[in-house]
């Protein structure tokens, strides 16, 4: 038979014991902190904050541009007109792709819910208002 060596436990210092032994002291409850100024602003209603103009969404701006144009437009043309007329603002790198995706989602959601969509795809990459 083989003899196996049994390792002797190392002496534990008082510092190591203090770190590994859980404390039995009960957890103290924290007092409620006063609400910060930013939290108070979030709770106020829009009328209390003052009249702020709501920025139109990309779809609202696209509908406005298409109504003014009266003809089908591509997403690049739509975005160019929306930005020139300051109907919509964006810092994105591909705003035409953003508007295209929003238009396609809007049309698909309307079809799925059996509603009439505001937009209609007339040919590849061109949209118009649905009347």
Description of the molecule:
The protein has helices at 14-20, 37-43, 46-49, 58-69, 75-84, 95-112; strands at 73-74, 119-123, 126-129. It is mainly alpha-helical and 131 residues long. Helix 4 (58-69) packs across helix 5 (75-84) and helix 5 crosses helix 6 (95-112). It is built from six helices and three strands. A hairpin with a 2-residue loop joins strand 2 and strand 3 (126-129). Helices cover 44% and strands 8% of the residues. The model has no long low-confidence stretch (mean pLDDT 80). It is elongated. A three-stranded antiparallel sheet has the order 1-3-2. The protein has a domain at 58-129.
For the biggest sheet, the summary is: 3 strands, antiparallel
Mean pLDDT: 80
User: Uncertain runs with pLDDT below 50, 5 residues or more?
Assistant: none
Return the string of H and E elements. Answer: HHHHEHHEE
Shape descriptor reads elongated
* Major beta sheet, strand line-up: 1-3-2
State the separation between the terminal residues, measured CA to CA. 94 Å
Which descriptors apply to this entry?
single chain; elongated; 44% helix; mainly alpha; 131 residues; 3-stranded antiparallel β-sheet
């Amino acid at each position: 038979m083989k003899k196996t060596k049994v390792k002797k436990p190392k002496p534990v210092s008082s510092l190591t014991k203090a770190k590994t032994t859980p404390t039995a002291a009960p957890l103290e409850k924290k007092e409620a902190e006063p609400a910060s100024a930013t939290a108070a602003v979030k709770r106020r209603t829009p009328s209390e904050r003052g009249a702020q103009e709501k920025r139109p969404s990309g779809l609202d701006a696209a509908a406005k541009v298409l109504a003014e144009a009266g003809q089908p437009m591509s997403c690049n043309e739509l975005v160019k007109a929306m930005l020139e007329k300051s109907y919509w603002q964006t810092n994105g790198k591909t705003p035409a792709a953003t508007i295209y995706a929003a238009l396609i989602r809007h049309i698909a959601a309307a079809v799925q819910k059996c509603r009439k969509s505001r937009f209609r795809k007339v040919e590849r990459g061109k949209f118009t208002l649905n009347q």
